[in-house]
Structure formats: C-alpha cells, structure tokens
Design brief:
Elements lengths: L1 H16 L2 E6 L3 E3 L3 E11 L4 E2 L11 E6 L3 E4 L6 E12 L3 E5 L3 E4 L2 E4 L3 E6 L22 H7 L1 H23 L16 H15 L7 H20 L8 H9 L5 H18 L7 H27 L1
C-alpha cells in the first residue's frame, strides 16, 4: 500500500515540475519606433495538450505587434518525455512611457498557467534645439549602378551616340563615294597677236575686195585688224580712237620711225577711202595692206626684243 502511495506522489510531483512558462524581452528599454522581441517558452510533458492564447495585432493600447513567429516545438535530448514550445513576438511602440505587458494565459492539459508580467520602457528622442531640425540618421549613400549612370546621364549619352553615328556615316560616305575621274583639259597655246593679225590680212588680200570696187569695205577690214593688234601689243585703246589720236599715241611709244610711218600712211589712205569718198589708185590699194603688214612685222620684232630685255 505504501509503495502505491509513493508512486502516485512521485507522478504528481513530476507532472507539476514539467509544466513551466518562461517569458523574456530582448530589450526592456527602446526608443520610439524601435522593435523588441518578446520570447515565450512553454515546457511541459510530451503528452500534454496545449491551448495557445489568441494572437492579436496589439498587446495593449500602446504596444503593437509587428510579427508572430511560428510556434516551434522541440524535445529534450536527455529526456524525450519533456517538450518545449517557443514563439517570438516582435513588438514596437510609438508613444513614450512605461508600459506593462499583460501576461498571456496558456492551457496545458487540464491546467491553466499564466506568463509573468513584463515591463517595457519606451523613450523619446533627445532633441537639441540649438542645432535646429536635423535628420535622425545621415543619408545612406549607395554606389550607382550602370543603369543609374545611364538614367542620370541619358541626354549626354544619346547626344554622344548621335555624334558618333554621324561621324561614322560621314567617314563611310567619304570612303565609299565614287571617285571622279581626273579630267585633264588640253590647254590650247595662246596665239600671239601678230600671228592672228597677219593671218587675217592674208585672207583680206585673197578676197580682192578693192578689185571688185569695194574699196571702203577693203580699208575697213584692214583697220579692223590693225586696231585690235595695236591694243594687244602696244596697249593703246585704238578701236575707240580716231586716226589722229592713234598716231599721236603711237608716236609716244618706243618703236621705230619706219613702223610709225607705215601706220600713218595706212590710216591716211583709209580715211580718204572711207570718209572723203576719194577712190585711191590701184597701187595705193596694194600699198595699204603692205603698210599694215610692215607695221605689224616691225612692231612684233621690237616688242619681242623689249620682252626679252
């Protein structure tokens, strides 16, 4: 009988000792807005049934629940008849003050146990009014990524790319454009004034104008050859001047008297035939063109000598 009573007493003691509640705060003093972890542990017999408390968004009027962790169950390695249930509650508060955390009630089999009451002290920030309004913490600087650089400098990058593309297109065009064949123009040698004038006089002589009764046309043709020649070789505006003005200008040039005389005789015969309506003799007609040829040949030789000098 005594043995049975001892066994019953031992069982009751063992059951009572294995039902234990533990609660603690990771930090019992926090600043406004900071978080703390409330850790709850239930130690009981492995066969005990557990009735957990209702999980709400707040623990009281001021303390808010940020997160409930999952209830973790583990068994004692030395005695598997004992199990431990753990849960961590993350809490915060946005009002300064000293608050009591209402104890939680847990049902373990037929018993109802309550956690110890915990206190949470919430402090406000100390404001230095002499410094004015400042940030709580300095601005966190993070390194820029390649995408950030692109967004920041996007206009400059696009302009640079456009310039590079334009330069490439211009270079490609210059490199591949059809090359024009080099055309070498054949330069015709300039014919000297005396050569042109003598050729024209030969043609006039061959036309035999005075022999056909066209003395006026004959002398006009000769003077139209001699006057341009004087302009090109002696630099006298002979085309726009009278015979008197031409002879006076030629007299001032450094040419032979024979050339001057030949020009005067030519112009005199020409004025008689064109303006005085006097019909020159055949010999005078022949001498007129010879005077022109002689004047050109003499001045040609003298101007060539002056150029060589």
């Amino acid at each position: 009988m005594k043995v049975i009573q001892f066994f019953i007493f031992f069982s009751l003691c063992f059951g009572a000792n294995t039902q234990q509640l533990i609660s603690k705060l990771s930090n019992d003093t926090i600043l406004i807005g900071q978080q703390a972890q409330l850790e709850l542990q239930v130690i009981c017999h492995a066969s005990d049934s557990i009735e957990w408390f209702e999980q709400k968004d707040t623990l009281n009027q001021f303390i808010e629940v940020v997160e409930y962790s999952k209830i973790d169950t583990s068994f004692n390695q030395e005695d598997i008849r004992i199990k431990t249930l753990k849960q961590t509650i993350t809490i915060t508060c946005f009002d300064s003050g000293f608050y009591q955390i209402k104890p939680f009630s847990i049902g373990i089999s037929e018993n109802r146990l309550t956690f110890d009451t915990l206190n949470l002290n919430v402090l406000t920030f100390q404001v230095d009014t002499a410094k004015g309004i400042t940030d709580i913490k300095p601005i966190l600087e993070t390194p820029l990524s390649l995408k950030d650089y692109f967004v920041l400098y996007k206009p400059y990058i696009l302009v640079g790319l456009a310039v590079l593309i334009a330069l490439f297109i211009f270079w490609y065009y210059l490199k591949n454009r059809p090359k024009k064949a080099l055309v070498v123009k054949e330069q015709t040698p300039e014919i000297p004034a005396h050569v042109t004038a003598l050729e024209k006089l030969k043609k006039i002589k061959a036309q035999k104008l005075w022999q056909k009764g066209k003395e006026k046309a004959y002398y006009s043709a000769i003077t139209e050859v001699v006057c341009p020649y004087i302009e090109q070789s002696l630099y006298i505006a002979a085309v726009e001047q009278t015979s008197f003005e031409i002879t006076r200008a030629v007299d001032r040039k450094n040419i032979s008297n024979e050339a001057k005389t030949a020009l005067k005789d030519l112009l005199s015969l020409s004025d008689l035939a064109k303006f005085a309506k006097i019909k020159p003799l055949p010999s005078e007609n022949e001498q007129a063109i010879e005077h022109a040829i002689r004047f050109i040949e003499l001045t040609k030789q003298e101007t060539e000598k002056q150029a060589d000098a």
